[in-house]
What we know:
Belongs to the binding-protein-dependent transport system permease family. The protein is mostly helical. It has one domain (about 35-55, about 65-285): MetI-like (MetI-like fold, Orthogonal Bundle), CATH 1.10.3720. Helices cover about 75% and strands about 0% of the residues. α4 runs parallel beside α7. The radius of gyration is 23 Å and the shape is elongated. The chain starts with 9 loop residues before the first helix and ends with a helix. The relative contact order is 0.15. The model has no long low-confidence stretch (mean pLDDT about 85).
Amino acid sequence: MSATVAAPPRWALRIAGITRRSPTLAIGAAILLGFALMAILAPWLTPYDPVLAQPRNVLAPPGGAHPFGTDGNGMDVLSRVIAGAGWAFGIAIPAVLVGLLAGVPLGLYTGYRGGWPDEIMMRGFDALRVFPSIILALAVVAAAGPSLLNVVLVIGFLDSPVFARVVRAEVIALRGSTFVESAVAAGNPTWRILFVHILPNAIQGAMAQTAVRAAWAVRISATLAFLGVGIQPPTPEWGAMIRQGAEYLVTGQWWVGIFPGLALILMVLGLNMLGDGMQDMLDPRRKAATR
């Protein structure tokens, strides 16, 4: 008798289906999963304390007990790169949540109401676009102080116009729909029309932007740390590590800045690929254009 072959589990079939429909999303998700595991398992993966200085082992080249070498304080670069993944997620995720919580209700209300609230919001966003985001972030963080909370709040609020614009455009297209007119005719209050009837149909575009905006948050936080106004040493943050490593590139100690720089590039690449894949999956117009 021939043995029956067990059918693959349902979750495996779903993953295979997503991979076929959007390889970009699958690759980006795989990269981020690796970094997420690195961040979660950092206490067990790091061979040394990431902030433990070893004065007798300063700028040791890669190899032996230190696969990525040591920095100018004798700290193990591999341990600091692994620990830096947790800081990257710890900045990107809260910053995106702040942007969503600030931008989505604003775009929802002004897109539905129109008139002067919408006009004021759009002119305010236009004024913000005059100044480069990094200059605004640099000025605000420098004035407020280089703490993790300040960095997250500044990045989140600077990113909120992106979510507000996306939701506003969807609401404008939906507010004349039959189901919205029916909700109004049934006597629903404005808050119920916005959050129960319109929001579930207008949120997809904003959700598709989350991964791309998380990549932006990681880049901006690293840039702030590189310029000396973000997360401060000896915290194992990739931007601060690149800043320290830049001082040693001219003298040949390339590993201090190269390894955290590669980690930063790979994580931003994974987030951008995940964001592009999510937009392809959620936006039927883009999906049709790629066929």
